[in-house]
Amino acid sequence: MFAPFAFAGHELALGQGRALYWPAERALLVADLHLEKASWFAARGSMLPPYDSRDTLERLADAVRATGARRVITLGDNFHDDAGALRLDAHCTGMLEALTRALDWVWITGNHDEELPRGFGGTIVPELELSGVILRHEARAGETAPELSGHYHPKLRANVRNRHIARPCAVLGRGAGGSERMILPAFGALTGGLDAAHPEILGALQPARAIEALMPAKGRIARFPLWQAAA
User: What's the predicted TM-score (pTM) here?
Assistant: First the structure.
């Protein structure tokens, strides 16, 4: 289920599966897939179940079907390392090749995968501007234009109705002039998370007058204040 909200003059929708849909562009945006993270750890002696890439790609395909997206834009750290594409099993390789053939696919590179392989199809770029919104991997401190990014894997930790929750979220910063910038949640299956109110995240969205966490809940966006500029 995707919950709609306004961002920088556009209507977007955030899904419980951590993808962002842009209806006017028929574009699905996902950040930080970190494909083949488990195999990277396995090569270093930490044996994790080797199913993270399959789970991530299956959820991505489900999000494409649910939204009817015709375009997918990834916001960097698509693979956990530059050699990750070489470790994909045949099933995941087939899934990824089918997705990139069927869709207008744009890979934005990240700090984990600056040298993406070109064998899967799609366009590889360091960043992209779409309808006045800059799409990049890492939020650029001091940016005043509308911006969508990833990198930080924000996760909200809060008490709601006497329950402690810790869930992936988006983090939205609003500037004094009304400009808006947002950090998307990590989409990958093995991505962990940084507290949404962590100084690294709050600093990345400056200058801002207010910063809040966004989570989809029953078809609506729940908002949680994280930081407010002094009056």
Answer: 0.92
